[in-house]
Specification:
- The complex is a heterodimer of chains A (about 425) and B (about 375).
- Chain A has about 425 residues and is mainly α.
- Chain A contains 20 helices and 4 strands.
- In chain A, the strands form 2 sheets. In chain A, strands 1-2 form a two-stranded antiparallel sheet. A two-stranded antiparallel ribbon of chain A has the order 3-4.
- Chain B is an alpha/beta fold and about 375 residues long.
- Chain B has 2 domains: about 160 residues, Periplasmic binding protein-like II (D-Maltodextrin-Binding Protein, domain 2); about 160 residues, Periplasmic binding protein-like II (D-Maltodextrin-Binding Protein, domain 2, 3-Layer(aba) Sandwich).
- In chain B, helix 4 packs across helix 16.
- Chain B starts with a helix and ends with a helix.
- Classes of the chains: A mainly alpha (about 425), B alpha/beta (about 375).
Chain lengths: ~425, ~375
């Protein structure tokens, strides 16, 4: 192909050779160089065509993700705010509270900060950062910094009087430990762990462990949702693929119509349907299947999340399945039956294996989308139906602990990549068919 | 002679118009708030009169307050601040202030004094003004119930009743965060409203609050968005719901929902303005702030929504609802008959202990 292409541009290959016996084109260039040049030009053209998309992906996808992952270890606040204090802390052995020189350095750092223009002050961010590690650190810092200009030596006493936290060894251990430009503490927190007095990583008290179990629950819910979309989507896709095109298209609109409806509208519709005084429960009570006090809890729990998200993600399963089933010739099944297979055997051994690429594609799509979903679980999930993405959103939007959110997000990303890799090893992505 | 005079008069008139036009290029202010009935009340009480007085100004409403903190930080880090003024909760304002992404406020310099000359710092409700924060309204989180859920002679009337599933069965809708819930748990457990935060700052106090919450855990539905609480009540999903008093007022009085507010233990908080640092129209924003937070303007807002004005001098000016014509005074959280056992939300406490308690609360919800 390349040779043909090159020759058509560079002129026909003659039988001519140069002085060293190499083949040359009609204008006298050695054939090898002419070929290389032509290939390079083709590559550049291809790159120019892909270029805009590549640039787009790098700028708007890869770069933000890299930045997000960087945030999970970035830790500038303490280093920026307390350079002198950290210097003085070098000497401290981590037992008790530090001596006067450290407090004097702290005083110098805090006074120096007061002179900076407001936007460049470091003490505010320092308080917010320390509060992630130990409660009440923010008010310790802000209260002290308001009074620090009037402190007189000995500073140790002045600081411990200003706020009780300055007299706690734990705060000083945190300052020393986190006084580096990079930190692992967001990951430590994201794994429900913390540092103890000796600096070892230990489990958090049981009543503060949430993230690991949330990851587990997110995984379980996503698998359940994927399975449900498969169970519901497979027969639909099969039925669609057996219908004549014009009926299939009509039905396909019925599949796609909810897909085009606003997510919030669909979620609210599920609330109307599923709640205890909702349509379904009222109908069941009205028909006498259940008593008025035996209404089902179908929403504000895991059931609600699974039902609403199965509905929302169903098209992502149906479309790849349909596109694969459409290509399976019906004659295969007829052949199997004519060879004596019962319908179930024919389905199991002939038809089903051929739908695997569609199942794989639909499964991966639904699973990966649902693992990062958060609007629907937030609205219908109640306490037991929420997922890790709800926590990530909360840390980004409300608590503003972007480091922890980045750590949780990175773990989710890596987790999905590992699962994808596993899937690839087991099933093979080359067999995926998205339509 | 007279035509010459006319000419001079005309030309000077023209130049005056030209000058004033040059001095007043059209400006648009982007003001960020919570949307819904609340933004509508600001539009009618502040924005429209201000635009009338300053015809060159257009005010654009942005309903971004729920995530304003994150947006402000992002805008500031990107060096492209597009918001002029933001409506925020004081705890968020405190964090933004610590980060230096909003302006500090010199209260008496930047805000109008009361009509009788009392400086702003003394006229705003005690403790409500922040370093970077100017309150507009006092709102409260209140307990609301559906009268139909209980017999006529045994209606609930206190926070204690929320925790009494024996006498008051039915599901309860609570907000899915520790704030308000922990305070009420302690209050119902017999802690004096003034001592709640002292107790809650101790590990034993936290355990005590969670133990009290445990007693109703099976009956709780958690809500996330402010609109969900009245919705759950109106649908008959729950017997009790906690919610913001303005939304409850709107649902009961305007929408005709059947529900009643229990003012016992109302958790009172402020809501107000912050000014993003390096915003595009700082000077004009200051002018707007001076205008929109004066005594009359704050009192005006109470004719559109049942949130109390944050200035003492405004209280006397609160009148009737602009559309319904009902007296708004009795619907204010700060009305004496409603303000008998308030819990004033301690923002410093929540900024300090919020992270830890939210983790504990999330863990408790998941169990």
């Amino acid at each position: 192909m390349a040779i043909q292409h090159a020759t058509s541009e560079e002129g026909a290959i003659g039988t001519a050779t140069d002085s060293r016996g190499r083949l040359v084109t009609s204008d006298g260039t050695p054939l090898r160089r002419a070929l290389e040049r032509a290939n390079r030009r083709r590559k550049l053209t291809a790159l120019a065509l892909v270029g805009p998309l590549l640039a787009f992906i790098l700028i708007f996808f890869a770069f933000p993700i890299a930045q997000m992952m960087w945030r999970s270890v970035d830790n500038p606040q303490i280093v920026n705010a307390l350079p002198e204090t950290l210097n003085a802390l070098e000497e401290w052995d981590g037992q008790g509270i530090p001596d006067e020189p450290v407090f004097a350095a702290l005083h110098a750092d805090m006074v120096a900060d007061l002179d900076r223009p407001r936007r460049e002050q470091k003490i505010g961010p320092l308080g917010i950062r320390l509060n992630y590690e130990i409660s009440a650190a923010r008010s310790a810092i802000s209260r002290t910094s308001r009074a620090v200009a009037d402190f007189d030596a000995p500073y140790k006493e002045a600081f411990t009087d200003a706020h009780r936290l300055w007299g706690q060894p734990e705060l000083w251990r945190i300052i020393k430990r986190e006084g580096r430009p990079l930190t692992a503490s967001y990951y430590v927190a994201a794994l429900d762990r913390e540092y103890d007095a000796e600096g070892n990583i230990v489990k958090r008290p049981e009543n503060r462990q949430i993230y690991v179990s949330l990851f587990g629950r997110t995984l379980a819910l996503s698998l359940a949702i994927t399975f449900m979309t498969f169970v519901l989507g497979f027969p639909i896709a099969y039925y669609l693929s057996t219908l004549p095109m014009r009926y299939a298209n009509l039905l396909m609109i019925a599949v796609l119509l909810p897909f085009w409806t606003s997510l919030l509208v669909r979620t609210s519709a599920w609330i109307v349907l599923l709640q205890q005084q909702g349509v379904i429960n009222n109908a069941l009570v009205g028909m006498g299947f259940i008593g008025d006090d035996g209404r089902f809890s179908l929403i504000y729990n895991q059931t609600g999340t699974i039902i609403a998200m199965t509905h929302i993600l169903l098209p992502f399963m149906v479309l790849p399945l349909y596109s694969v089933m459409r290509t399976i010739p019906p004659s295969y099944m007829r052949a199997a039956k004519s060879l004596g297979a019962r319908p179930w055997t024919a389905f199991r051994r002939v038809y089903f294996p051929q739908t695997l690429p569609g199942i794989g594609a639909g499964g991966v799509l639904v699973f990966i989308i649902s693992i990062g979903y958060y609007i629907t679980p937030a609205l219908v999930g109640g306490q037991s139906g929420r997922m890790i993405s709800n926590e990530i959103a909360r840390h980004i939007q409300q608590s503003l602990n972007w480091g922890l959110a980045a750590a949780l997000g990175s773990m989710l990303l890596v987790g999905v990549l590992i699962l994808y890799w596993l899937f690839n090893r087991l099933v093979g992505t080359d067999s995926l068919k998205f339509g | 002679m007279s035509s010459k005079l006319k000419l001079i008069g005309l030309s000077s008139a023209v130049s005056v118009i030209a000058l004033s036009a040059a001095a007043q290029d059209p400006v648009s202010l982007t003001i960020v708030s919570w949307g819904g009935a609340y933004t509508a009340s600001q539009q009618r009480a502040y924005h429209e009169p201000f635009m009338e007085a300053n015809p060159h100004v257009t005010i654009i409403n942005d309903d971004g307050s729920a995530n304003a903190l994150a947006s402000l930080r992002a805008q500031s880090q990107a060096g492209n601040v597009t918001w002029d003024l933001v409506d925020m909760l004081p705890s968020d304002a405190q964090l933004a202030c610590d980060e230096g992404i909003i302006l500090q406020i010199d209260h008496d310099e930047m805000l109008a004094a009361a009509p009788d000359g009392t400086p702003a710092s003394e006229d705003f409700l005690p403790g409500s003004l922040g370093e970077c924060f100017i309150p507009q309204i006092v709102y409260s989180t209140v307990l609301t119930f559906r009268p139909g859920a209980f017999p006529d002679d045994a209606q609930p009337s206190s926070i204690e009743d929320l925790f009494d599933t024996e006498n008051f069965p039915g599901r309860r809708a609570l907000q899915d965060r520790p704030g308000t819930n922990l305070e009420w748990a302690l209050y119902a457990d017999g802690v004096d409203p003034d001592e709640i935060y002292e107790v809650l700052a101790t590990p034993e106090g936290v355990d005590r609050a969670f133990a009290k919450l445990d007693t109703i855990k099976d009956d709780i539905i958690f809500w996330t968005e402010g609109a969900q609480a009245p919705q759950l009540l109106a649908d008959g999903e729950v017997a009790f719901a906690t919610g913001y008093n303005g939304r409850m007022f709107d649902a009961i009085e305007v929408e005709g929902m059947e529900a009643a507010i229990i003012w016992d233990g109302q958790v009172v908080e402020w809501d107000g303005w912050v000014v993003p640092a390096d915003g595009p129209n700082e000077e004009l924003v200051m002018e707007y702030l001076y205008f929109a937070t004066d005594t009359q303007r704050l009192a005006d807002q109470a004719s559109y929504i049942s949130y109390g004005p944050a200035r003492a001098s405004s209280a006397a000016l609160v009148g009737e609802h602009a559309d319904l014509g009902i007296d708004m005074n009795e619907h204010m959280p700060t009305a004496p008959e409603n303000y008998f056992a308030p819990i004033v939300l301690d923002n410093d406490f929540w900024v300090d202990y919020g992270d830890e308690l939210r983790e504990r609360f999330a863990n408790w919800m998941l169990q």
